[in-house]
Design goal:
With 603 residues, the chain is α/β, with parallel strands linked by helices. It is built from 18 helices and 25 strands.
Amino acid sequence: KIAKGYLPEEIVLRSRSWYRENGISLITGQRVTGIDIEANCVTFEGEREAMAFDQLILATGSRAYLPPIPGVELAGVHSYRNIADLTQILEETQSAKTVAVIGGGLLGLEAAEFLADRGMETTLLQLGDFLMSAQLNQEASQVLRQKVESLGIKVLTRSRTESISRDSSSSLSLKIVDGEALSFDMIVFAAGIVPNTEIAAEAGLRCGVNGGVIVSDTLQSSEPHVFAIGECALHRNQIYGLVAPGYAMASVLAKRLSGQEKEKFVKGDLSTRLKMAGTDVVTIGDYLDPRGQKLVYQDEGHYRVIALNRRGHVIGAMAVGSWSELSAVQYARDSRAKLTKKQKAHFLSEGLIGGEDSLDLTQWPDKQLVCNCLRVSKGELCAALSDGADTCAKLREATGASTVCGSCEPLLQTLVSGQPPIVTARRGGALVVFSFLALVLGVLATVYRFPVPESVETLVYRIDELWRDTKIRQITGYVVLVVSVIGTLMSLRKRVSWLSALGRFANWRLFHSVFGLASLVTLFAHTGFRFGDNLNFWLMFTFIGLNILGAAAGIVAGLEANPLSPFNAPARRLRPVLTYAHIVLFWPFPVLLTFHIIKSYHW
């Protein structure tokens, strides 16, 4: 983030004052030179006295991997890892024009975009057959490559660097195995990590052949009172070079040290998220599991996979290109949800599983993750919002959300902009109320006939004039028509893509129910709820049936809006059935209405 204008002090997770306020002694600028296991103390560089410990946690992280080839020590060759690296690279971009980025993984792609954004002629070299080969399959990587190349970045795959040297023009000459030598002003390595575990190995702790302090599921090293977490820990023969497993390890260890001894770290979440030029590259869960079923959707610029186990539960997903349902898919994976046949078919044809309802943050369950990096749920954010964290900055500080990759920032903005869960509850309640009134009126229209008294002296008779007087009937007829047309147009919000910019779908659905109720009220003024005969009968039957089905669908949609309600699950199953029946019954209505108008004026 320093490359985009942020200062180093702005990207630290906690200020020095936070440590003081929480009773933590923070020591910086002092290098630890050794660990004395027998004496239970650590030693420092310089004159600082050794510090004793009861429990020691190693969180020394990692450094960039530089291959053992000639020339990596030359000026102009950089690693892409920390603030010092970025500072040097930024200084050199003032004069350098061409750059090679070695490494086609997450960090290499980020580095390439960073340098291309600064107007440098950028070439990305990948050892494997395709980009992000550790995360993506070849089809997804091909979509990603097209997006990378659209940024003006040249991509070379199957390219192993043999050596780096200075050529006659003082440029850096990069020799590729079985290939030509390429000339660049600068070379940046972003090709993996090496755990910082030398100090642990010197202390006698068991480490892996390629580095990493070997830890158990309790995150203990070979010494019971020494632990390791993050990128310096080797757990079940795996180094996790991602932030989420590191935070998960820290959480497990903190709980264990505070007395919750049953807590264990079994497996890290390998979900990843990269955003290049506004494009998401995401992996979630066990998306490459060869067992079970793979649902694949692809169009120009998008590649999406949902992985299901043999029982049909969502176990992972992969995507290249924007996908508005990513957090909903993450929640489906975390809760091992099943997809219905309709959802599967919808995904295969449209690339979406839940339609627009899943995009409404206020309708998400409290357990659904908003920040995948730090595992911050919507419920945690809403709690912080209620406690006064009413800006994105305060939410970040209170929960840590959006402090890692920043891709969930728009979701935080949605919460802060005035759409907390209480708004959802009120909107769902209003939808139920208006739909219930429409249902009652629709049922009343089918079973009750307004009396037609003979006396002209009664109030009832004057009400009856509404459908006896020709001029009044014309006026009320047109009112019914206008209200019905507006109500119908409100239903198009979900089916016409450009209308999505004109307000939230939940609001449109509420107004649709309001106009449905209004149409029944004006229908009473026009007909007194008399069905009539022949054409009039079928028109009334269709119109009132439409309203009854629509009102029922509105009621279950309102009940569905509350994820904690016991009615949520049955409402979710029933709503599509009622909605489909409502749509099917609509089709004869325009034809019947047209004949009714022609009959009224010309027959």
